Amino acid sequence: MFLIVGQGNPGAQYARTKHNVGFWVLDRLSSDFRPRGNALIAEVKFLRASGEQVSGLLIKPTTFYNATGEAVAPLARFYKIPPDRILVVHDELDLPPGRLRFKAGGSSAGNYGLESIAAHLGTRDFHRLRIGIGKPPTPEEGASWVLSGFHPDLLPLMDKVIQTAAEAAQTWATEGIEVCQKKYNGLNLAEPPKRAEPEQAS
């Protein structure tokens, strides 16, 4: 069994902010979320290439972003889900819009939601899917940056990013993180697709 966590804040006032891209990804994977404890959860089944079904949970915490661990840890323990079967989908200041990156464990790089999960699980060994939102104009504007929406010009790109991230999360659940790192970490959705070179006439 796997667990995919979207980071975000509950409430309509936060719904379209950069901090909520984790919720956006989960909404592409299911529309059947129900309240349970400190979260909205959905049960899903994804199909492996072999035809085998893999069962898991999608979690949208209702604790607010910086207390994500309060929702994640009780569910992980109840379902006995190990850290390497937990994927946290979150916004990332250090990546520009159009970029995704999978990461296994390591530093939270100042992300208080990840710190909360690590503290409540007692480990940093869970997996992350980082979604680029770009840096604010100045470091002092970080809080207002993540709690604001994307520029309208970026919305078509972010729609493509969110759809790709949803597909990537399914790939993680069915094929594992190494496959995802090879497939998605070098992808830049902000770049136009490369054209195939025309064949030279012999």
What's the rounded overall pLDDT mean?
Answer: 93
Biggest beta sheet attributes:
7 strands, mixed
Tell me, briefly, the overall form. Answer: globular
CATH architectural group: 3-Layer(aba) Sandwich
- Beta-strand percent range: 15-25%
Superfamily (CATH H level) name: Peptidyl-tRNA hydrolase
Distinct helical segment count: 6
Helix content: 25-40%
Distance between the termini: 55 Å
Structural class assignment: alpha/beta
What topology does this entry show?
Elements: E1 2-6, H1 21-29, E2 34-36, E3 39-47, E4 53-61, H2 69-78, E5 86-92, E6 100-104, H3 112-121, E7 127-132, H4 142-146, H5 155-175, H6 177-184
Parallel strand pairs: 1-4, 1-5, 5-7
Antiparallel strand pairs: 2-3, 3-4, 6-7
Helix pairs in contact: 1-5, 2-3, 5-6
